[in-house]
Amino acid sequence: MKTEVISIGTELLMGYVVDTNSSTIAKELLGMGMGIYYRQIVGDNPKRLRDSIELATKRSDIIILSGGLGPTKDDITKEVVAEFVGDEIILDPKQLDKITGYYSDKYDTLPDNMYRQAHTLKNGTTFFNEVGLACGTAYERKREGMDSQYFILLPGPPSEMTHMLKHYLKPYLMEHVQNNGVIESLYMNLYGLGESRVAELLDDLIENQTNPTVAIYAKPRQVTVRLTANAPDSKTALSLNKALAKKVLDLVGPYFIGYGEDQTIEAFVVEQLKERQQTLSVIEGFTGGEVMGSLTKISGVSSVFSGGLIAYTNNSNHKVLDLSIETVNEQKVKELAEKSLEKFNTNSALSVMGNVDYNENQNLASGTLLIAYAEKGKETQMKDYPLTERPLEVLRVIAKNEAFAFMNQCLKQSI
């Protein structure tokens, strides 16, 4: 079935707010094997919204509208959809109870506009908003001689939309649309191979795909392979995906960095450290905290990450590490990693420094990245990596990724 997303809000059209909802919806539905065919952005105008809905109904089977469910006069989505499908607006009692409870300390009598957030379609299915005040709605419209058409109304605030999408919309679609089994995806992440090379290595699997299907999409220096199986139940789908995953690993195994839609190279390194019961400290300069910052976003990282230092000046190096670095070179970067083992009492350490020059406008940088990985009782490993001219913030992300990729390589070699 073809799916379309309509994002509603004048602030989206004007560029004051970035439309992240449609990309979140697309990713979540893709994991169910449902692709988004079209996207629209429309302002808070009844006629233009109706025109957008009418266009969507001519080409799509599932129409997801995000935004315009709030209490103000320009929150018009429910009213426009109700008029379009010929249904009646009613109040959802459960959502209304939450609204009145929320405002009980602020108003003796609830203002009329606040009731709008509890509006729903009489013959639809209400999605209770557990993290906000405006409920969502799903409406099924029967079509003679055709499959039903579905109108899904979700709130605009991303946190509310994402919660409702995962906890209400996806189960609704599984029940009403995917009633002939389940469609589930398994995500495999590769680091150090380009998208074209992955496609070349997996060519036979892609050319002969049936069930599961194979899809490839790229991130910076990382490629995700998505396997999607259609099966009577989740257990069978997982079994099908795992069987194909084994064939993929046979072809690209050395570059594999774990399963999961949001897997990163740093998370994969942390998993390995946990398995080995190793602790890590970090000294970084050029990256300005990018390396340590990425570690702190990983759940449970405190069991392996002991701390570190942003060694931006000679003074900080001397005071904390008893080490003076007037110029950055391989020997000094190695010494930083080895000193880190001692000062932070860890059994592994990563140092990331750079010799970087800026262009005349100071908006682009280039140079050489120096990475050292030290482990107690073993020889310290060193790598140089060329940094071609790019914005500083881009180079820092690249440097972070390359540092963890090098550490991953060192860990594999030390098994």
TrEMBL record:
This is Putative competence-damage inducible protein. Pfam families: CinA (PF02464), CinA_KH (PF18146), MoCF_biosynth (PF00994). Belongs to the CinA family. It comes from the Bacteria. It comes from Alkalibacterium iburiense. Gene3D superfamilies: 3.30.70.2860, CinA-like, MoaB/Mog-like domain. Residues 4-176 form the MoaB/Mog domain.
